[in-house]
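Supplementary Methods, section 5.1.

A reviewer requested that the exact input to the structure prediction be made available. We therefore reproduce it here, unchanged from the version used in the analyses.
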Amino acid sequence: VMFRLSQYRTSLGSSDFSNAVREVDRGHLSTLKLTELLHQRMQYIFDDDGSYLSGDFYNYLQKRFDSGPGYYSWSGLRYFLYEYELHLLEHASQKKVDWSSLLKTPKDKVSVEHVYPQSDPTHWKRAFKGISKKDRQRFQNTLGNLLVLSMSINASLQDDSFEEKKRPKTGRGAVKLRTGYSDGSHSEIEVSKCDSWGPTEIYNRGMRLLRFMEARWNIRFSDDEIREELLFINSYKDAD
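The structure derived from this sequence is encoded token-by-token as follows.
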């Protein structure tokens, strides 16, 4: 929360906590006291009512949306999406994504995909009719449009239509080029249950992911208005 959301430097409090850990090791400080020290250090990122003060995270993201990549360039993205994948695994029997796969993806491969492609191909524009190019880019790079894949794919396959992405794709000799969402990661399977993919689906999934973040990371955004602001597509309120 301190480092990935509020974007404080990882050296914050390093000397204090190095000393504290040494005291724990020597038996001079209990782990309970260490926990209290951590909570005290984090107090100033929470409001009086206990809700998380999201201003630093919002400002960090705003710079990334202004420059283009949005959430796709967030340093905590892969870790967060992996945690969500493990959350979905709790209700399934087979693990489909390994953390090492997300760390070792070759440069020409994709392990976190934009469901609505960044290239904005013509066959996708119908779902975003009436939305400006700048705002379409926000939909492409917002949290709800980013999906961890069970199998890395070539970047050129990202332009497929939503229906094509849901199905396996094979090449010559029946070589599988990509696993369809319907048989991919648990996150892919969840997305594949949508009949179509547009502003409403992206908004709804983004809100669902932020609520998961709150539950998983033990924080609370004050209301839906704050959650919508953090998605950077809050000018569109026509979602269910």
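The chain has a mean pLDDT of 90. These observations are discussed further in the main text.
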